[in-house]
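Researcher: I'm preparing a figure for a lab meeting and need a structural model of a single chain. I don't have an experimental structure, so a prediction will have to do for now. The sequence is pasted below. Please return the structure as C-alpha cells so I can convert it later.
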Amino acid sequence: TFRNGGRVKAFAEDKLFRNIEPSYAYHLDILRLANFDISLCYSHRSQAGNVQVYKGPPTAGAAKVAGASVKHARFFVRSVSINQTDDVPAEASRMLVEALKALNTATSEHEEKAASSSAPEPREPGGPGSSNHIFLNVVANNASPAPALLQASVVGLMKRYRRQVSALGVAHVEVRSVPTEGGNPLRLLASDPTGTGIIVVEAYEEVAKSGESTGEGAARRVLRSVSRDKPGIWEGALTTSPYEVYRKFEKERAAALASSDTLFCYDYIDLFRESVALAWAAKEDALGSSHGPGGRRGARLARPAEVLDSVELVVKPRGAPLPIKKADAAPWNLKMAEEGQCELVECQRPMGQNDVGMAAWLLTLRTPEYPAGRLVVLISNDITYVQGSFGTREDWVFKCASEYARARGLPRLYLAANSGARIGMANKLKAAFKVEWNNPTEPGQGYKYLYLSPEDNVRFIADGSVKTQLVLTPENEARYMITDVVGDFHGSEPDLGVENLRGSGMIAGETSRAYEEIFTLTVVTGRSVGIGAYLVRLGQRTIQKTEKAPIILTGYQALNKLMGKEIYTSNDQLGGGGLIMYPNGVSHMLADDHLDAINKTVRWLSYVPARRRAPLPITDMKGVDSVERLVEFEPSRNAAAPFDNPRYLVDGIGAGDTSAPLGFFDRGSFTETLNEWAQTVVVGRARLGGIPMGVIVTENRTRISLTPADPADPNTSEVEVMQAGGVWFPDSAYKTAQALKDFKGEDLPVMIFANWRGFSGGQRDMFLEVLKFGAMIVDALVASEQPIFVYIPPYAELRGGAWVVVDSTINPSCMEFFAAENSRGGVLEATGAASIKYREKDILTTMRRVDSELLKLAADTAKAKEAGDEAAQAACAKAMKQREKKIMPIYQQIAVQFADLHDTPGRMEATGVVSAQVEWKSSRSYFYWRLRRRLAEFQIRRQIAKFDPSLSPTQCSDLIRKWFIAEGQPAEAWADSRKVLAWIGDHQAFLRVQIETMRADSVAAKTTALALECPEGAAAGVVAAFQQMDAMQREVLRQQLASIH
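Model: Understood. Here is the structure written out cell by cell.
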C-alpha cells in the first residue's frame, strides 16, 4: 500500500499495511493504535484473510498522560477474515488460533533479540508481558448472531485457550462481527482481569452518534453497550477511539500481584459470582449423575439469572452526599467518627472509588441453598492503598462493617492481605527541625537535642503538631527543643503511630465479639502481618492460600536483621499455609489459588444459616440420596483397625465412585477441616437428609505429630511423635473443643461418632495440658444450643475419662447418647477390668465351680480325706493343680468375656446412660427423624423461653410433652420422633394459642410487677400506650379498665 502524505513522506509504501489488500486494510482498525508508536513485526496471509502483528511502546504524550514511568513495547494482533460464513463463532475460533500462533512467533523473535542485546528492554508492572491485544474482525458473515450467542461462544473460546492467552500476555480479545446484509456491527471485548479463568465479556453495538456528523456528512459511530444495566468500559466511545495505554485498574492489579501475589480487592466480587455459578453447576451435575434412589439424570434447577448482587458499604460524614466518585467524597477522620459525625451507608458506585485502604460490601448470594438470595458482609484490605496497612480510617471502616453484620446477624467474611499497623512520620516537621551538635565540626561526637527555630515553632505549635521547650544558647539565641512529635494527626498527617495501634486493638475486640455472635470466616489471600495476623486468629475459621499468603507477626527480613545473619529465606517459613499454619490448626483449609479459596468459602457458607439462629439451610436431596437408604459401609471386627479410615463412616468408601458403599451422611456432602492438625480426631461438616450438621469422628489409626526444626536455633531438630488412635492427646482434645465452638457459632447440630479409650496421661502430655484441653470439651458442650448426638458405632468403645467429657448429662437439654450393636462402654477395657476385679483367685473359684473334672477331683479328694488315704489326697491335689494350669488360659478369656458383658449396649440402655440402641444399618433414617424432631422441638422451646425466661430448656421440653399428652397422645409416643414431628406439624394452631397465652401472661406479669414497683410510672405508661393504639386496641383496653371495681 502506497500513500502520499500522512505517516509517509511523498509517495511511498505505508509499511503498516504490508501484505494486505488495500481494500481490507481499513478493517484492521489501525486508528485505535494511535496511542502507540507501532511497527509491523509479523504478517501472515491465508485464503481466509490476514493476520498482522504490530509492536510498539506508548507515544511520549500518551505515556505522560497515563503516568507510565518507562516505555515498554506491546503487541497488537489484527486479524481480518473475508470468508463468507454463517457460523461466526467457528470463524472466530479459527481466527483466534491463527492469531495466537502469530503472536507466539512475534514474541519469540522479540525475546531472542532482547536476550542478545546488551541493554535489556525496560519493564514496569503489568507491562510487556500482560497487556497484549488481539483483534478479530469477521467482515463477511451473512448475518450477525445474537449477542448472547456470540458472547457465550467467546467465553468458551477464552476458557479453551486460557493457557495460551495467559502465557502470551493477552489482556483483551476483541471480536467484531460485520453483517453483509445490513444491521449494526457487533463488537465484543473479552478479558480475564483476575487471571483466574473468570472471563468477562462486554458486548457493544456500533451505532450512529446522534447530533454529530463528519465533514462528509456521515454520522460518526459510537459503541453502545448491549446490556443497558451494566455499561462496559467503552460505553459511548467512538469506534475510532485509541486504546488506553493502561487497562482500567491495570496498575492496581499489577501492584496487588507484585506486593503479595493477590488480587485487587474489587476483583473478588467477580470471583464470588463465578463461585456461586460453579455451585449451581455442581448441584446440577450431582442431580444428573446420581445413581442413587430417586436419581434424576439430566435434571435441571431453576438457576437465577443473576447469582450475585453487591452494594458497597461506605463511611461518610453525616449529611454529606453519597461518595459515588472518589473526587466527590467528603473528607472525614477518626475524630469525626468517634464524635458520631460519620455513618456507614450502602452506596452503589463503580469499583475502585475508595479513598481508604479498607473496602466493604453487602453481597446478595443466590446459592442453591438460598435461590432467593442470602446476605453476606464482605470486608477486604485494599493492598494497593499504602500497602494495605491499617490506619485509623481503615480500622473504623472495618469496625463499622463488622458491627453492621453483627446487628443483622449476617455472616461476616474478611479477605486478609495487609502489612499490619501503619507506620507514619511527621514529614512537615522532618523537613524543618535542626540539630544542636556537641561539636559542629565533628558530627561524630554526637548531638544534644533537636530543635525548631522560633518561626517554625510558632507555625507547628499552632496546629498542635509538636511540643517544645525553650532553650537559650550562651549567645542568648532562642531555640525550641522538641520534646514530643505529635503530628497533625487530625489533619494532613494522620496515622503516625500509636493511634494506629489503638485502632488495631479496637478491631481486635470487634472481631472477637463477632466470632461469638455471628459466623465469621477469614480468607487469607496475601500476606497478613501483625494485627492482620491476629484478626485471622480472632475470627477463628480460616481459609489460607497455600503459597505466598503467610500469616506472620514479623517479616523474615526483620528477623534476619535482628539475628545478624541470613536465616530465613521467605515469610512462608514463618507463617505459610502448607508448612506452618495448616499443620498447627490456625488455618482450617488450604486453597491452591484465589478462586479455589472463594469456592471453599461458598461451600462453607452452604452449611450456615442466612442469619444467626435462623432456620438451617436444608437442601432438597431428591436425586442425590435417600433418607431411608441403609448405611452401606459396614465396620468389621476382623479388620486390623475396625474402621480403617474413620471417614468411611461419614462419607463411605471412594468419594465420587457411584458404585462404592455409602456412609452415614448424604453422598458427597462431607467437607473436612483442620485435617492436618491433631490428626487423631476428624472434624468437618456434612448433611443428613439435606440438613447440615457438624461432625466429629475418632481416628482409630496411629498418626504422626510433626514439629519442624527452627532454622534460627541450631540445637533444634524435627520431632516426630507417634499418636495412637482412639486416644485424646492435647492437640486433638483442643481440636475437638474448637470444632464444637465453631459449630455453635454456625448454629449446627452435631454428630459425634465416639471411639475413644481415654486421654493420653503420660508425663509429656500432662505437661502439654491435656487436662486443660479435655476440660475445654466440657465447656464447649455446656455452651452448645443445638442438638448434639453422641453415637458409639459398631465395634467402637468409649471408656473412662473419654466417656465423662461427652456424657449427655453435661448438657441434658441438648445432648443425647446412643450406642450401636457390638459397641462397648465402661470405665476400663474388659481386659483391664478383669485384671482388677476378676483376679486369679476368682478365676480358680470359677474353675472349681464350673469344671466337671475339677468337681470330680474335689469329690475324690474328699473321699480320700475321709478314708485317711494321704497318698490319694496328694495325687488328687497334684491332678487338680495340673488341671487348673491347663484350663487357666481359657478361663482368663471367660473372665474377660464376663467383664465385657458389663459394657454392652444392652446394659447401657438398661441403666439409662444411653437413650437407645440404634442399629448401624438403619441409623441414618433413625437420626434423620430424630434430628428433625429435635430441631422442631428446639424452635418451640425458644418461643416458650422468650415469654417465660424462668423456664430452663429441659422444663420447656417437659411443657411441650404435657401439651402433647393433653392433646390425647399416649405418653409412650413421646419417644417416637416421627409421631412427635407429625403432631407438631398438625397442631400449629394449638401451639400458637398456647404460646400466645404465655405471651399474654408474661406481659401481664411484667406489667403487674412494674405497677407495684411504681404505680405512677405504670399509669403514665398505660396512657402513652393508649395514645399509640389503633381503635380496636383502644376499645379492648377500655373494656379491661371498665371491669375494675
